[in-house]
Amino acid sequence: MSNLPKILKVASDVLFYFVLGVIVLTVVVVAVVTVRGSVDANMVVPVTLRPDASAITLYSDTYGAAEIQVLTGTASFEEVGSPGHVAQSLLLVAAFLAAMMWMLQLIRRIFGSVASGEPFTDVNRRRIRTIGLLVILAEFIGQTVNFSLQQAVASSTTATGATLGANFTLDPTTLFLGLLIVVLAEAFRHGTQLQAESDLTV
Amino acid sequence: MPIRVNLDRVLLERRMTLTELAERVGITVANASILKTGKAKAIRFSTLDAICRELQCQPGDILEYEAG
């Protein structure tokens, strides 16, 4: 059997423990920030801007004038002495990393089973399906959190030359990838059946 | 499974153990046991050929069809 599954297992192990380290560090930082009671930090939040008609103009000799309808990006607010918001951001990051850790753990176990020569098992089929569903769920939750943050900013902030709004968009590529992984799990179901038959063929 | 495996009877007649047969045929003892206990779903012709050669028997001596 090629060494690739073993190499991938080692790589996923390294990544897993790296992410675990980052989560532990994040939790420690949150604790320190909360205890200290004050912090110098910039708050970076997603924003959606609808520029006023004359605020920004685009003109191309080839394509003519353009109307900019929506701009998306991030705004960096200077925030001093608000550990609550910083802790909130860090906890969101920790939650995202925890989901990534769960996925990495599933991937580690899949690579481990491939390295040991038994990839087609019902357990692996369930792991792959879980990864696919996690990818889809992460996209929904991520965009929901993004949308909520944008709404929170829009409701408490004024902009000159533009209107602040909120945008909820799902990345079709991510959704398609998640769906593809779920379909792959179904292919593994067939592989598991073939493996079971092969195991009982003498 | 309507196909019954009479391997234990033929082994007894030839005074051979399952382990010996597995070694001579080139399959694992676990696989030989799966065959003997009727849990096998399929048997390769190459395996059947080797078993018949070692036990000096016909396929019909070790495989029997039972209707119903």
Structural key phrases:
heterodimer, A: 202 residues, alpha+beta, three-stranded antiparallel beta sheet, two-stranded antiparallel ribbon, 5 strands, 16% strand, extended, B: 68 residues, mainly alpha, 5 helices, 2 strands, globular
Overall radius of gyration of chain A: 23 Å
How many helical elements of chain B? 5
Helix % of chain A is 55-70%
**Secondary-structure element order of chain A, N to C:** HEEEEHHEH
List SSEs of chain B in N-to-C order: EHHHHHE
Helix content of chain B: 55-70%
Major β-sheet annotation of chain B: 2 strands, antiparallel
Q: For the largest beta sheet of chain B, what order do the strands appear in spatially?
A: 1-2
Report the portion of residues of chain A in β strands: 15-25%
> Helix/strand/pairing class of chain B, anyone?
mainly alpha
- Could you name the ranges of chain B where pLDDT drops below 50 across 5 or more consecutive residues? none
Which pair of chains has the greatest number of interface residues, and how are they split between the two chains? A-B, 4 and 12 residues
Distance between the termini of chain A: 22 Å
- Report Rg of chain B: 11 Å
Q: How confident is the prediction overall: mean pLDDT of chain B?
A: 93
Multimeric organization:
heterodimer
Query: What structural class should be given to the helix and strand makeup of chain A?
Result: alpha+beta
In short:
With 202 residues, chain A is of the alpha+beta class.
Give the topology, please.
The complex is a heterodimer of chains A (202) and B (68).
Chain A: H1 4-36, E1 40-51, E2 58-60, E3 64-66, E4 71-80, H2 83-115, H3 122-156, E5 162-165, H4 172-199
Antiparallel strand pairs in A: 1-4, 1-5, 2-3
Chain B: E1 3-5, H1 7-14, H2 18-25, H3 29-36, H4 45-55, H5 59-62, E2 63-65
Antiparallel strand pairs in B: 1-2
Helix pairs in contact in B: 2-3
Task: Describe the model.
The complex is a heterodimer of chains A (202) and B (68). With 202 residues, chain A is of the alpha+beta class. In chain A, 64% of the residues lie in helices and 16% in strands. Chain A has 4 helices and 5 strands; from the N terminus they run H-E-E-E-E-H-H-E-H. In chain A, helix 1 packs antiparallel against helix 2 and helix 3 (122-156) packs antiparallel against helix 4 (172-199). The relative contact order of chain A is 0.14. Chain B is mostly helical and 68 residues long. Chains A and B meet through loops of A and helix 3 of B.
